[in-house]
Amino acid sequence: MINLDQYIRDIPDFPKKGVVYKDISPMLQSPEAMRFAVKTFIENLKGEKIDKVIGVESRGFFFATLLAEKLNAGFIPIRKPGKLPYKTHTEAYELEYGTDSLEIHQDAIEKGEKVLVHDDVLATGGTALAACNLVEKLGGEIIQCNFLVEIGFLKGRDKLKNYQVESLLKY
Question: CATH no. for residue 117?
Answer without folding.
Answer: 3.40.50.2020
